[in-house]
Here is the input.
Amino acid sequence: MWTIYLNVVLQGVMTGLIYGLMALGLSVIFGVVRVVNFAHGEFAVVAMYAAFVLFKIYGLDPLIAMAPIALAFFAIGFILQMGLVNSFVGRAEHEQFILLVGLAIILINAVLMIFGPDAQPVNLPYAFDSYLIGPLIIDKVRVYAAIAAVAVSAGLFAFFRHTRTGTAIRACADNLVGAAVIGLNVKRLYALTFGLGLACVGAAGALMETIADAAPSLGPAYTLLAFTIVIVGGLGSMSGALVGGVLIGVSEALAGFLIAPSMKSMFSFALLIAVLVLRPQGLMGRRVA
Amino acid sequence: MLSVRDLDVYYGDAQALAGVSFDVAEGGIVAIVGANGAGKTSLIRTVAGMNRPTRGRIAFHGTDIAGWPSHRICNLGIGQVAEGRQVFPTLSVGENLDMGAMLPRAQGKRATQLERVFALFPILKERLRQTAGTLSGGEQQMLAIGRCLMGAPDLVMFDEPSLGLAPAIVKDVLRTIRELNREGLTCVLVEQNVALSLKLADRAYVLENGRVTLTGTGAELLEDDRVRQAYLGM
Here is the structure.
């Protein structure tokens, strides 16, 4: 009996790592630029459709398509921040909110116009293969996607920790006046950050397409999901986004198994409320003095 | 080297600077003194490109830089040690210094500048891996100065470098500024410690309510009755 639970939890962990990568993008953007990307889930859905199209036309496996999609999303994010969001930084929160919600509405309706409301699956040849390790049954697609998500996250961590540009972005998050004083080009670093955030969500969307079917209705759901994960993990904490992602992934999987798949979000939100009550700064967040 | 003419700066409707003019000669130390709220920090921030002037000219080596973004101004060689030190608290001392050398003009000089900073402040070498937030106030001020020097500036504007430091450390900091000046660095010093900064300066300006009301050599202003009464309590 316990092996079933183990399998469900393992499946939740793997899905959660992809969620975590998606939330990582939101967390990085908020942590540095101090703007909440309310179009985050919509961008994930656009990436899912991009993976779907690349598979349909070129037969490209989303695990490979992830790279060009992430690259394109980086460029989109960079241009978006340079051309539009930078002028909203430091303005009232409701103005930023309207800008990004507006963007979300445009994205999701563009997807609706082009692809219609129906779900678009990618049917990989190895979709139903799995590894059998003792009592564990591990889906091939899910484990590949999870490994890819971990690899992308690790790459981002390394970039922030070990490169000069990554350190400069951390410096902006640390002390904006200090960054301006020593002549860091803050607007450009913000654009890089937004680009990296969207690259995360682009990669996560492509990976998501291997385990879920692209549909416009997923947009707002994923925005909310990413937001929940980031709050549970701790706003602005990069490791928190991954931990939060895994927690939400596992809670969804267990709820889907024990109660009903349609009830799974209820448990994510219960977790969110519990964290807000017991540890408002999030699991890995720093307490703001 | 730096020549500021008729500078007006507004924050919304409030005028922070009204027709401010001053000059900084190459190799000199210029002190700008005045009470809290007189506009000293506004002046520095405007020269540094962090505030936009509504009127006036800021010429550096003959180029008008009024309204340029701060990263371009820094790259011309105008450095700033800001009020409150403004180090990056979660970054290590080494990373803080490294960030000072991100300017294109400092790219090839990283190693030599770092050596110079360590010679000036040996303590920073000892604390290289420590995060800046754990340093004492005096050490943070050294780090702020060191970080600024990493950008290989020709002119450095010091905004209240002695604020919040113990008297013994204040002397150290001002001695360092004089030493840097002797090595050829042009300095602008904004200080609430009027006596010390006038002693150091070869030219000084008194700022009151956003206007320059008095100017002269440091020694002249030290002897001026109005300065003695208003700022030195004599």
